[in-house]
Design a protein that fits this description.
Oligomer: single chain
Shape: elongated
Distance between the termini: 21 Å
Number of helices: 9
């Protein structure tokens, strides 16, 4: 049974005056205007004042006031707050206090005096925040073409449910993608057969038998089922998506597909990580945030 997705009422918007930050502000404006039926929407515009810049409070407030004005003039309830500290830490701590439905942050910040969202901050927020995080890349563009990624996990399902209820501009073009592993799935039986052989005795034909072909077909059928179930979640919200099954390295295939199809936003699941796990190499979501040329929405699977 599907659990109804909680509407996006409370948004925490990190602002520093950079072009990516301004694109984030305009995206939040679009979201709120697309969800005009929601009269409970509130946006907190958050800025971070570096510890060493305490005397420049007024300068750091300028982009926050501008963001507040831009939202308010479209009848969007927004308030600005500037807090001294370290960017990722302040944003995550404020999210814990506010419990927003969504954090919106620019992919990169100003690499100058007013820059707060420098490289790594967005990633740290994604990994430690308690809610979904929308990472916006400049230049600003309306979100019309959306790529939803599914791997069949609980985390992925949560992302799809969030995507199905996200306030997109009407008439958006949706794509639904699943990526099969780059090589056939090896069953425990096949692995045991290989590991018991010496290097000299290893027969390459072990990997081209009917048994292996059956595993390849089973993998493809499983992928088709993942796409079908994900598509059903979108159809339940009257979202029709083009489905695509690819094979290879997941992050590479997703990034290439997004580039080839001029995608504006990639949506994927992202497991919440503990402090010990926070720099786990090989994370698909991390690769997407670093290398995708479009904006990203990472929907968290809370830690147990």
């Amino acid at each position: 049974m599907n659990t109804p997705q909680k509407p996006i009422h409370q948004v925490l918007l990190a602002v520093d005056g950079s072009e990516h930050s301004l694109a984030a502000v305009k995206t939040v404006r679009d979201m709120a205007l697309a969800a005009t039926h929601c009269r409970e929407c509130r946006v907190k515009v958050l800025g971070v004042l570096p510890v060493s810049e305490g005397s420049n409070y007024a300068a750091y407030m300028l982009p926050l006031r501008e963001a507040e004005r831009l939202l308010n003039e479209h009848s969007i309830s927004a308030t600005a707050d500037l807090i001294q500290g370290y960017p990722a830490e302040v944003i995550v701590d404020q999210a814990r206090v506010m419990q927003p439905d969504l954090i919106v942050i620019g992919a990169k910040g100003l690499r100058a005096t007013l820059g707060i969202l420098l490289g790594g901050v967005a990633q740290q927020v994604i990994e430690h925040a308690c809610c979904p995080v929308l990472v916006i890349r400049a230049p600003y563009r309306r979100i019309n073409r959306v790529l939803v990624c599914s791997d069949g996990s609980v985390c992925s399902r949560k992302a799809i449910e969030f995507a199905a209820n996200f306030p997109f501009i009407e008439g958006g073009d949706f794509h639904l993608l699943h990526v099969l592993p780059p090589s056939p799935v090896l069953t425990p039986e096949l692995l045991a057969r290989v590991w018991t052989l010496s290097d000299d005795a290893l027969d390459p034909t072990l990997f081209t038998t009917r048994e292996m072909e059956a595993e390849v077909e089973a993998s493809r059928k499983a992928g088709d089922m993942i796409l079908h179930e994900a598509n059903e979640l979108l159809l339940a919200q009257n979202i029709k998506a083009k489905t695509m099954l690819l094979q290879g390295d997941a992050a590479t295939e997703i990034i290439q597909y997004a580039s080839d199809n001029a995608v504006d936003l990639i949506i994927a699941g992202s497991r919440g990580l503990s402090s010990m796990q926070s720099w786990l190499i090989g994370s698909v979501s991390r690769k997407l945030v670093h290398y995708a040329s479009c904006s990203m929405l990472l929907v968290k699977q809370p830690l147990a």
